[in-house]
Design a protein that fits this description.
By secondary structure, the protein is mainly beta. The protein has one helix and 13 strands, in the order αβββββββββββββ.
Length: about 200
C-alpha cells in the first residue's frame, strides 16, 4: 500500500515538473505587438537651392516619411519625373514657372493624402535679363555728368547732374519715386559751364 502511494506521489511530481518546464509556442502570451508607427512626413533640404524658372533642372529633396507614389509641386506646379528613391530621398525635375523669382514653396504629398510644405528652401531665378522701354529724363541744359545717389536718405535712388548750358540750372536734381521714375527737376546756381558734380555727406 505504501509503495502505491509513493508511486502516485512520484507520478504527480513528474507531471507537475513537465507542465512547468514545457510551453506551447502556439499560444500567445500577453498583448500582441503594436504595428510600427509610420514615420512623420517632412521636407528638410533641397539641392540645388537656386535654379532657373525655365524648368527641367534635376533636383533632390531630402526629408522623412516619403512614400512610393508621392507627388511634388513647386510654386504650385507639378514637378516632372518624380522618383521616390527611399523614405528620405526624392529626385525630380523642376517645372516651368515663368515670371516667378525668389523663394518658392515645395510641397510633397503622399498617396495617403498627408502633405508637407517648405517655403524657405528653394529660390527661382529668372531665365534671362530683360529691360523695359527707356524713358527720357531731362536734367538741364547740356548735362555733362549725371550721378545716381540717395540725396534725401529715403532709400530711393535720386539723380543729380552738372549742366553747362546756363548758370541758373548749373546743378539739377530729381528725387526718385522708387519705381524707376523721378520727380520734377530742381536747380541750383553754380556759375556757367558746370562740367562735374561730386556728392558726399556733410
Amino acid at each position: 500500500m505504501k509503495a502505491r502511494k509513493r508511486l502516485v506521489w512520484i507520478s504527480a511530481a513528474l507531471l507537475m515538473a513537465s507542465l512547468s518546464t514545457n510551453c506551447d509556442s502556439g499560444t500567445p502570451m500577453g498583448d500582441p505587438p503594436l504595428p510600427p508607427t509610420p514615420e512623420a512626413l517632412s521636407v528638410s533640404e533641397a539641392m540645388p537651392k537656386q535654379l532657373k524658372n525655365s524648368g527641367g533642372t534635376s533636383l533632390t529633396l531630402t526629408g522623412t516619411g516619403f512614400q512610393t507614389g508621392a507627388t511634388v509641386t513647386i510654386a504650385g506646379v507639378p514637378a516632372q519625373d518624380v522618383v521616390v528613391v527611399s523614405s528620405t530621398t526624392i529626385t525630380l525635375k523642376s517645372p516651368l514657372k515663368a515670371a516667378t523669382c525668389g523663394l518658392v514653396p515645395i510641397e510633397v504629398t503622399n498617396p495617403d493624402g498627408k502633405a508637407a510644405m517648405r517655403g524657405d528652401l528653394l529660390t527661382f531665378l529668372t531665365n534671362g535679363l530683360q529691360y523695359s522701354i527707356p524713358t527720357p529724363v531731362t536734367m538741364g541744359s547740356y548735362p555733362r555728368q549725371v550721378l545716381t545717389v540717395d540725396l534725401n536718405k529715403d532709400g530711393k535712388i535720386d539723380l543729380i547732374s552738372a549742366n553747362s548750358g546756363a548758370a541758373n540750372n548749373a546743378i539739377a536734381y530729381r528725387l526718385g519715386n522708387g519705381d524707376g521714375t523721378f520727380g520734377n527737376a530742381n536747380f541750383f546756381t553754380a556759375g556757367s559751364s558746370a562740367f562735374g558734380v561730386v556728392v558726399g555727406d556733410a
